[in-house]
Write a structure and sequence with these properties.
Length: 374
């Protein structure tokens, strides 16, 4: 191994004692490829297994914790015990290849397609639709329903433990329900779950507490609990970088195992809220990196891209689209074959890349999403 790649390929240990064989993580990406009943397909398991040999940790696509939280066609579920064998099949497929398996748990909130949830009942923090034409007006959750969803996050964590996962990632990013409670755009409540920024933090922090409580109760083994967040929202009012600094301070105090920043571009800079021209990831790392490991992500394709990211101090680098285009990215770096890394999708290699058909169709019919699809 070339010594300059040691920072990427050396092992990493979380404070709970769980060790990763290297610092490269497969980022969570929706693949639209599960069965309509919420079970994983063999094609999906094969897709993950193909990508689990090189990386240290795999974070799955999001799995819904409540029936009315299903956010995508072909999304797999974790909302009931009969899905534990399905969840186990996916965990085993990842772990057999040597990576740690992290189940991303989520509720889509106002972003769910009405046809995917019981009675078309779209819910959120408040009755405020997402911006854009034709978006459904969600029903404001009652206090009891909010408590029930917090419990659902805990129950899905228990199922993840029973299914053999090494941890869970709470999906508090990309405009889904956890973020909807934190956002002044989507949360206009006047009870204990809304209003002040402290009240808007109550739901995300209650989920963290419940997930950690369940993990402590149901396993004696170290169990990773991470949290993913989006640093800013484009809407006005919306989450600003200043709000996010308050969020991550609160999350760092919860002794989470990691914070995962959701970014399209690793080097993107703040839109508003701070007088700082550095990248968001550098600001976040400086703020909380000493107390909680940060995972950085966003348009990292080549080994040079990854090496540029290392000096920010972020200990873990996540690859999303790049792991789809080249499942052997880590192995190529380790073997000195970095010149062979593929950074464009090859439209003739679906089978070789082990990409399920629904995901493949989404890739080749979405110009600009992947390099190589014009």
């Amino acid at each position: 191994m070339d010594p300059k790649y040691a920072a990427l390929l050396e092992p990493f240990s979380f404070s709970n004692g769980v060790s990763l064989k290297n610092r490269v993580v497969m980022a969570p990406m929706t693949n639209f490829s599960s069965n309509p009943d919420g079970t994983v397909t063999d094609a999906e398991v094969n897709y993950y297994a193909r990508r689990s040999d090189g990386v240290g940790m795999v974070i799955t696509a999001c799995t819904y914790v409540t029936a009315n939280g299903k956010g995508f066609h072909g999304e797999f579920g974790g909302d009931r015990d009969e899905l534990i064998p399905s969840l186990r099949k996916l965990a085993a497929g990842i772990k057999e290849q040597g990576a740690k398996a992290i189940l991303q748990i989520f509720h889509g909130g106002r972003q769910v397609p009405p046809e995917l949830v019981p009675n078309g009942d779209v819910v959120s923090a408040s009755s405020v639709p997402a911006e854009g034409a034709g978006k459904p007006v969600p029903r404001e959750l009652t206090d009891q329903e909010v408590e029930a969803i917090i419990n659902d996050f805990g129950e899905t964590t228990r199922r993840a433990i029973e299914a053999g996962y090494d941890g869970v990632e709470i999906h508090g990013a990309n405009g889904y329900l956890v973020q909807q409670f934190f956002s002044p755009h989507s949360n206009q409540r006047e009870d204990r779950w809304g209003g002040s920024i402290e009240n808007r933090l109550a739901f995300p922090l209650a989920i963290v507490d419940e997930v950690k409580r369940v993990a402590a109760e149901h396993t004696k083994e170290p169990f990773i609990v991470g949290y993913r967040f989006s640093p800013e929202e484009p809407e006005t009012p919306g989450i600003t970088m200043a709000d996010t600094l308050i969020l991550i301070d609160a999350l760092a105090n919860k002794k989470l195992d990691y914070l995962h920043v959701s970014l399209q571009d690793f080097w993107s800079t703040p839109r508003r809220g701070v007088d700082d021209t550095r990248s968001r990831i550098e600001i976040i790392q400086e703020r909380v990196g000493a107390s909680v490991p940060v995972i950085g992500v966003g348009s990292i394709y080549t080994v040079e891209d990854a090496l540029k990211a290392i000096p920010t101090g972020v200990p873990l680098i996540a690859l999303g689209r790049e792991m789809i285009m080249d499942p052997d990215w880590v192995q190529k770096v380790a073997e000195g074959r970095e010149a062979e890394i593929v950074t464009r999708i090859d439209k003739n290699k679906q089978q070789e890349l082990v990409i399920p058909d629904p995901l493949w169709q989404a890739i080749i019919h979405s110009p600009g999403w992947f390099p190589g699809v014009e």
